[in-house]
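Troubleshooting log. The previous run stalled partway through. Resubmitting the same two chains, unchanged.
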Amino acid sequence: MTYCVGLLLNEGMVLLSDTRTNAGLDNISTYRKMFTFEAPGERVIAIMTAGSLSVTQTTIARLTEAIDSGDEKRSIMTAHSMLAVAQIVGDTLAEVSHEIRGKIQQQEKVSTSASLILAGQRADGAMRLFLIYSQGNFIEATAETPYLQIGEHKYGKPILDRVIEPTTSLMDAEKAVLLSMDSTLRSNLSVGMPLDLVVIENHGLRIARARRIDADDAGFQAMSNAWSEALRRSFQEIETV
Amino acid sequence: MTYCVGLLLNEGMVLLSDTRTNAGLDNISTYRKMFTFEAPGERVIAIMTAGSLSVTQTTIARLTEAIDSGDEKRSIMTAHSMLAVAQIVGDTLAEVSHEIRGKIQQQEKVSTSASLILAGQRADGAMRLFLIYSQGNFIEATAETPYLQIGEHKYGKPILDRVIEPTTSLMDAEKAVLLSMDSTLRSNLSVGMPLDLVVIENHGLRIARARRIDADDAGFQAMSNAWSEALRRSFQEIETV
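Second attempt completed without errors. Output:
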């Protein structure tokens, strides 16, 4: 499984992904699910992936190939708007899903579904955050719903619902996605460290911060413990009805 | 959907269920999902239900009928142990599921799955808490895992994982299941008020407390608000890594 979350805030976008993939419980590996593309000053794009690894890896590979070969119709680095980027990414994902699905016989029951979160901004454009489905269609984050999740989204949703608003600072946003991930890590073994955190500042047009957080990261552990402690203390303080 | 949770603690058992049922998003009703059976001083049993309403209602009706008709083999009020009670409830659920499944043609895609939480104690016996599946098989809560959930269990799990231990007091346990339900109510519209809360004290052999909590319950609302407030305050206090 996977957990990826992206926030669209006034100050910028904050993205966090885990790295665990598994083909059955007895076959667990670490794969990056966060991919960034930059032309500093002109555009910045980040893509997070969930679902079938063969589908998402091939999709990213094709997107990269289109950039490298300067394919004007398929390069997300030359597309004239973030909407056009979402369209290219969606079409590529749908195409790859369809091809791979075609190779797998129905009775094999291998899932080929995958989904992506796309975040980006072009010079003179607004920051945009999309969730792209297997079929290539997508939805977009708005001020009313300033975050998008893919994968195992339920455990980490309550904290986001309570603290995230468009006016949330980037520092608080980093804290919120890390705590959201912390709740997910505790409850679903198929979501696992290390984590990839990426911050894009509004109009920065580059990756402002990219950080890998390893399993032994002292800061993350301290935050996780402090949050548990704070929750237990808050629990004790609440009066029973 | 449904959310029901049962805790097995040293001091007793605490059970909480919602009451919302829906046949599609446009057909929402309120049905009790908490059923109690008492022979004060001899035994106390509570059953919570999730899944297909036709299956769970028929199951409870048959269990009640067997008690009323004094059916020695099928009455949960004369069975000689809680394990035997679990067996009867499981067999009845499997039988009803099988019958109803047989009436529904495969292409109709109507779900007949259902699950139950059974809690109870007999004189001279220990308290026992079971989760019973559609097929009639069951698992039991233990000191390592002192709670069981059915229905929409994910949103309300993090709080239970953090605060529930066998030594938790009944008062804290009531608070924990209500906060667990509160997180679920906020995130899943198909789980809804009113709630049914039941407390069974160890060796009490009767329902110690049974309470219906309505949507306008001032105490529950105050607790829900206080918890949101405490979470937001805790969030602000935590240092970012």
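Takeaways: Chain A touches chain B at residues 154-155, 157-159, 161-163, 171-172, 174-176, 178-179, 183, 186-187, 213, 217, 219-220, 222-223, 226-228, 230-241 (CB under 8 Å). Helices of chain A lie at 53-68, 82-103, 157-163, 170-187, 218-237.
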